[in-house]
Amino acid sequence: MYAKIIIDITHEKLDRTFEYEVPKDMEDGLAIGSSVLVPFGNQDRLRQGFVVGFAKECSFDPEKIKAIHSKAPKSVSIEENLVSLAAWMKEHYGGTMIQALKTVWPVKKEERPKEKRMIHRTVSVEEGRKWLSFFQRKNQKARARLLEVLLKSEDVDYGWITRKLGVTAQVVRALEEKKILTVERETVFRNPVRASGAGRARITYTEEQQEAIRIFQEDYERARFDTYLLYGVTGSGKTEVYMEMIRTVVSVGRQAIVLIPEIALTYQTVMRFVQVFGNRVSIMNSRLSAGERYDQMMRARSGEIDVMIGPRSALFTPFEHLGLIVMDEEHEATYKSEQVPRYHARETAIERARIEGASVVLGSATPSLEAFAGCKKGTYRLLRLTKRAKEQQMAQVSVVDMRDELKNGNRSIISDALRGKIYDRLEKKEQIMLFLNRRGFAGFLSCRSCGYVVKCPHCDVSLSWHKGGRMVCHYCGYEEKVISVCPSCGSPHIGAFKAGTQQVEELIKKEFPQAGVLRMDLDTTREKESYEKILSAFADQEADILVGTQMIVKGHDFPNVTLVGVLAADLSLYMSDFRAAERTFALLCQAAGRAGRGSVPGEAVIQSYHPEHYSIQTAARQDYEAFFEQEMKFRSLMGYPPSAHLMAILMISEDEALLEKGAYYLKIFAKAVGSDPKLELIGPASPAVAKIRDLYRKALYLKHEDYQVLIAVKNKIEQYIEINEGFSRIRIQFDFDPVQAF
Q: What is the pTM assigned to this prediction?
């Protein structure tokens, strides 16, 4: 038998399979996805590789074929279906097969198992008392202490003994040798979810919820595994619908993956699922320890859990009988990977579901244009929830023109209208959320005399001003002390232009000293359980006002929040990104949706310097379809997704001249192979950030209505790069339908 193996080296010239003989004693132990060690290269160095196929015969002279050395020690294999998914990702998004395999390989190696140890008394009470008397006479106090406890209880936790009694492992071994006790060891899985068992609260579904559940269940019973878009306004009960769909899948012995856009949403989401599915729920995210991640994968493989919840990487949970993938807040940009292969979780989830024979449910109050356009074309099935689950009214939204505030002498980031409403809610003991799309102080230093801006010496971006006298580059981490004199003109009038969450928090504390204030952004959520602490404190009404970035406006449910203030609503409108209006609309709708989810009606105040923009006007009316129609006209006119497909080619090199030359030749080649007259090329041009960590960047964009045409061009460009040595010092990445501008 021969195995086709991908070598664990990320290099275009090695992006193919190599054939190796399978030793007789390994034939039964290898499978597609197994990790092995093989001799590779002229010196036969042992390299790790992955089995991606088998054959009875080899393509070369059998005498020259090398044999697999062994299985890679402590490695974890990849499921065969995930290997197929990796091959699809490599073709669909570019990159090498090894990069794709590592993406779908959530756990790379075995971790030491966690043991639960119990000390068990093996002698009778009568004999134990004799030993106790002996230890006391010999003044062996630690042994006597341990035996006294064991005489009261036959079994005692080993950790409790060492922590509370001060008994060492040596003392335990001494009594074990005398056959007075034994230490019993049991391997237990680390479980990051503190579940107390399932207990389903009675839920009364609205007619719309019942209809969505009925359609899904009837399709599932007929083995019609489809992709659905659950389009429901904020507070319409999408999560309850997901859970009923998952219950349908679990009842026939299959499992479900629930994707959420970011870790901040894990806490509330998991608690709701635990109430229904108990300890059959687990989580997967980057905050878990290596041991916790390994154990969750093993629990998934062994069938110990039914539901896995987590951000993008949870999509690759190795369930044997996957029946459903739910993608909540499917419009979020975080579902697109920024690492090669730059896959989108939505398309990848649909492909995994196709391979596994499963269904996909996409959920959002503000669907991506791609998803809603898919419903219009009939690619996805549309399920609508137009009313809130508890029949509450949608929040009343008002838009404040901050230009008028400035004319009236108000230079504060808080408008007079919002200030008055905050005072009102504090008096009523109701809660407030203030959303700002920036973190920390994160302002930049500029000279008021000459306009000089302090920039990073390694990246083409300004340094961000942080409290404590530090200037930091958020791309490469470069840091230096704040300066007091302009290095360009010598003026002392150099200072920070800042409007971040930290500044807003300080302003709110100063203006409303009677209020308890919490801040939630990247800086306050670095520790492992910081999300849960902040969210649970706010849910328990330990604070009146929660100030935060995007993470506070997505998916959270706080019934006592009756006012949401959106500060600098149009900040995201001025990004050099064709999705800026879509992103702004979604954020504003999500923010307004946090208000009035309890019994008291809610209100949202959107502060803007550009209130007449259609994304702000339609968001204030919560009118998604009006926004969709307006935005789709713009996309169609410009040939942007989803009207057409866009392939971005990012080129990176430390040699600027070489990069210019390489980008020029790549464009010439792309034009030659992409002979379709509908294929449009833009660039090459420098991205908004032209240099990061001393590496120069160029981007080339290709547009076409047919995705397959772009894939064909990508494949030819990959071959061109492989045979031309000039590209060896230029790193090239492909990004299909990018969600973030380079």
A: 0.79
Domain boundary at 103, 123, 148, which?
103
- CB distance 585 to 592 below 8 Å: no
Please check whether residues 557 and 586 belong to one and the same domain.
yes
Work out how many domains the chain is built from and give that number. Answer: 5
Q: Strand runs (DSSP E) across 137-211, as ranges?
A: 155-157, 181-188
Same domain, 173 and 217: no
Six-digit token string for 476? 């490469």
The answer to whether the annotation marks 476 as part of a ligand binding site is yes
Instruction: Say if residue 486 carries a ligand binding annotation.
Output: yes
Mean pLDDT of 165-171: 86
Rounded-to-integer distance, Cα 709 and Cα 272, Å: 44
Question: Distance between alpha carbon 731 and the CA centroid of its chain, in Å?
Answer: 25
Whether residue 558 is found in the same domain as residue 421: yes
Q: Is 58 annotated as a binding residue?
A: no
Is there a single domain that holds both residue 222 and residue 307? yes
Task: Measure CA 379 to chain center.
Answer: 26
Q: Is 375 annotated as a binding residue?
A: no
489 annotated binding-site participant:
yes
> Does 456 belong to an annotated binding site?
yes
Residue 727: which domain range?
645-736
CB 285 within 8 A of CB 263: yes
In three-state secondary structure terms, 492 is coil
Q: Helices (DSSP H) in 577-695: which residue ranges?
A: 580-592, 614-621, 624-638, 656-673
Mean pLDDT of 154-160: 85
Closest CA to 431 of 548, 279, 310: 548
